[in-house]
Amino acid sequence: MSAALIIEQVLNGFQLGVMLFLMAAGLTLAFGVMGLINLAHGSLYMTGAFVCAWVANATGSFWTGLALGLLASAAAGAIIEILVMRRLYDRDHLDQVLATFSLILIFAEGAHWLFGSRPLYLNIPDLLDGAIALPGGGGYPVYRLAVIGVGLVVAIGLFLLITRTRLGMRIRAGESDREMIGALGVNIRTLYTLVFALGAMLAGLAGVLVGASQSVQVGMGEPVLILAFVVIVIGGIGSIKGALVASVLVGLVDTLGRAFAPSLLALALPVQAAASVGASVASILIYLLMAVVLAFRPQGLFPTHG
Amino acid sequence: MAKHRAELLVNLVIALALPAAALTAWALGESFYVSLVSRVAILALAGVGLNLALGYGGMVSFGHAAFFGLGAYAAGIFAFHAFDGTPVISWPIQIMGAASMPVGWLAAIVVAGLAALAIGAISLRTSGVYFIMITLAFAQMLYYLAVSIPTYGGADGLILYLRSGFPGLDSSDDLTFFALCYALLMLAIFITWRIAGSRFGMALRGASRNEERLAAVGISPYPIKLVAFCISAMITAVAGALFAELVGFVSPTLMAWKMSGEILIFVILGGVGRLYAPIIGAAIFILLETLIGGITDRWQFVLGLVLLGVVLFARGGVMGALTGRARHV
Asked: What is the CB neighbour count within 10 angstroms for residue A161?
């Protein structure tokens, strides 16, 4: 286990972490502000990735694809908010789960129809191609570092938006008392649509970032969605700070577990057994983390008042 | 009273519709459709299990596929070892494989009961969205576990070459197999009915509405909910065991989160907390799959639209539309 390998895996963990944060931010905002649990968030992630890949392949420009991908996911978010979500805010969680589950089916089959069943491929832009040297030898792709950078910038931006701007003030007010801010003359419907579209755009951004390093295909959103749910549950549903801490935690635990669990187990078990046990331990590690956190803190690490 | 009678009538029609459909298909020599009705009965049984937790106990479990899958694997593994002539467990006691349905069911019940005890004990400390998410997470955990165990096929799954036997019956006959599934379905509905009417059932409903009030009259809600959660899981696991025998194949996808969603759909489409509702839900699901699936592969698009319509505009599901709001829920 060389130092370079450890640094590389820690960076990978951070990359997964910031990507999860982009997903989790929208989920946790929707829950904190509107009391909505949205399973279709992974579909918005997929929408961003598909539109970006399609446009980038048609025009040859990653950046045009990125812009249109973000726009498309924000627009899709706004549309489903107006058509569906709006009717669900006062319903119980069961109705929300079911309605957004049906949206997943509709989006997945819709994407099959529009883009076909084959995966699309999205190339990394030339600007971000290449690798830089890590201390201790070995290289690390610039693109992955850029993803971490984008994630951090978004996290800071979101923090400033919520704590420093009028819109953020309204969002926080909406979290604590929605009737009151309605009575004070804030158009709560528009605010909700805006918050939802913002979350959708962040999900779309995550989809584009992941789509460029893997393939873009139907069903790509669901594994990430479930991880993002693990994140917001660990962090405390509704808390942006909790989402940030938990996404980095989950990203690191998952990545380092997958990278090192087999070799750590090999110290105690035969190599063959360690490899297969290690793989299964690694894949359930974050769920164990979540179970342990919830067993001791049923409201997550950073409980919100609600 | 009129509504009560309407519900009884609807229940009777639903209960008789399944054997009528199976017999008709059998008389016409369409064994495919007999199996299809068996499928409805099995999926409905899974729904009856969830309905106990969801409809009567107010526990929105988004992880019941775990129990469905565990039941399927339990039955599948016993049959696999019987075929192989090897023991299922050799320590601390030796248990040989057995290609017998009652053994498979028993294994499914025991395994799922233990799993539900562990999962429920942790999950029931939380409530609301946290409960939904933690049950989902536990199901994912078991899913990945099943994927990573190569002995039982890993991600590829386990093929069962022969349907297990049932003492005194020819279980490979489609109609006989349907009769077994139907008998278990009716038994599970009967058990749910007895539970709902019992003192325990009253306490369970009390726990789903107001835990503080229940605690105030001296009944602790946690053990009540945990027991109900376990019974619910066991019923769903038997459905899983039957499903494995029906299709002759067990794979981790039975535990995937989409399956949990589908079991929820059976219950909600039919009507939450109504005894016979899961049969309607499962029947509609299979009908859509067969009818629209015959025209286009993209039948789930239509399923999504139907489901969305039911949630947004027809609360209470089909039973709610037919007989009005439930009396207890």
From this structure: 14
- CA nearest to A244, candidates A41, A73, A28, A35: A28
The B residues from 8 to 27 touching A (CB cutoff 8 Å) are none
Is A288 in contact with B125 (Cβ distance < 8 A)? no
**Comparing A32-46, A64-78, B19-33, B310-324, which segment has the lowest mean pLDDT?**
B310-324
Task: List the single best residue of B54, B144, B288 to mutate versus A (max A Cβ within 10 A).
Answer: B144
Q: Cβ contacts (< 8 Å) between B54 and chain A: which residues?
A: 94
B179-187 long-range contacts, CB within 8 A, separation 24+: B180/B101, B180/B242, B181/B38, B181/B41, B181/B42, B181/B45, B181/B242, B181/B246, B182/B18, B182/B19, B182/B22, B182/B41, B184/B45, B184/B105, B184/B238, B184/B242, B185/B18, B185/B41, B185/B42, B185/B44, B185/B45, B185/B48, B185/B279, B186/B15
Contact state of B304 with A105 under an 8 Å Cβ cutoff: yes
In whole angstroms, what is the distance from residue A165 CA to residue A17 CA? 26
B145 touches chain A (CB under 8 A): yes
Query: Which residues of A fall within a CB distance of 8 Å from B292?
Result: none
Inter-chain contact A97–B264, Cβ cutoff 8 Å?
yes
Q: pLDDT band for position B325 (50/70/90)?
A: low
Sign of CA dihedral A213, A215, A218, A223: negative
Give, as one character, the DSSP assignment of residue A86: G
ipTM metric: 0.84
Distance, CA of B290 to CA of A246 (rounded, Å):
43
Whole-angstrom CA distances from B104 to A29, B150, B245 are 46, 21, 10
Each residue of A234-272: pLDDT tens digit?
998 888 889 999 999 999 999 998 888 888 888 877 877
Q: Which residue of A has its CA nearest to B146?
A: A280
Give residue-wise pLDDT tens across range A89-122.
888 888 898 899 999 999 999 998 888 888 888 8
* Closest approach of A278 to chain B, Cα-based (Å): 10
Mean pLDDT of chain B: 89
Q: Which chain A residues have a beta carbon less than 8 Å from that of B145? A: 280, 283-284
Separation of alpha carbons B234 and B183, rounded Å:
16
- In chain B, residues with a C-beta closer than 8 Å to the C-beta of A101 are 261, 264-265, 307
